[in-house]
Amino acid sequence: MEKLTLSDGRILAYDEYGDPNGTPVIFNHGLSDSRLIRNPDESLTKSLGVRVIAADQPGVGISSPQKKRKMVDWGKDMEELADSLRLDRFAVAGHSGGSPHALAIAYRLPKRVTKIVLASPVSPLDEPGMGKLMINKDLKLIAKLHHLHFIIKWASNSEAKRALKDIPSFVETTAQEDPSDAETFLRDPIQREMFEASFTTGMVQGGEGIYEMIMALWDWGFDPEEINQHVELFYGDADDILDIKMPLRLAERLPDCTTHVWENAGHYGFVDRNRWSDFMGAVF
Q: Tens digit of pLDDT for each residue in 188-232?
């Protein structure tokens, strides 16, 4: 793990992995996850010719919280990270709630971001009808109560506290509630360890990171129609967390987007070996 002190004094934690001489890609994690989510085979990522830079979002890991942040604010943080790493041009990638974070970077840096790759992306949740496209029961409740900030903050902290008491059990319960991803979570012991580490890091500050992302998902600060770079968008047709109509709605709003369907894949299927190769291979 590396650390960067941002211009406002906040700490940003990030990892680099893959081919150090490869095409740079800034990867953005989703809700409850962290910079650690990935296919755990480092040699696979290296073989794809990509240099992945993955940062913990505010309130995740040791990245400092950023109260009242909007999605658009992430673009400035990643501009500072890219400058510190001397990245002139680079691709961005995002999974689930990390997808609008990837778009925020592209919005902030239209001349530096070469391509955008998204997996199971979330559409702007302030658009009418989007709340109804959440399949997961906890997300459905969030959609109904998101305007009651104190309840969301309390629920986020309670969920994190419960999870951190027994992370292996939390992963098993998540797999039971999300059957399309059960094999992804549990089949490979090394991959399961990755999920346990990612969730632990995602909630080590309690529910702060979860709460801040939830609020930002309803307040992007830009519209998908303002993204001009080409987007490669992947989604699984067996997703038990988001209705597939949500990524398809986002694809409709993006000016230049190609969609790809992963058959029989769930929400987290992007980390499985073949799909990870599709996902990271699409940055070129």
A: 999 999 999 999 999 999 999 999 999 899 889 999 999 999 999
Q: Which two tokens stand for residue 250?
A: 């986002």
Query: Domains, the chain, ranges and CATH?
Result: 2-281 (3.40.50.1820)
| Cβ–Cβ under 8 Å, residues 249 and 84 | no
DSSP lists the bridge partners of residue 55 as 14
Rounded Cα distance between 239 and 247, Å, is: 11
Q: What are phi and psi of 187, to 5 degrees?
A: -65, -45
Q: From CA 4, how far away is CA 51, in angstroms rounded?
A: 18
> pLDDT-based confidence at 137, cuts 50/70/90?
low
pTM over 0.85: yes
Between CA 118 and CA 66 the distance in angstroms is: 24
Q: CA angle, corner 99, sides to 258 and 92, nearest 5? A: 75
Strand 113-119 and strand 257-262: the pairing is unpaired
- Cα–Cα distances in Å, from 141 out to 53, 94, 131, 134, 146? 33, 24, 9, 9, 8
Tell me whether strands 50-55 and 11-18 are parallel, antiparallel or unpaired.
antiparallel
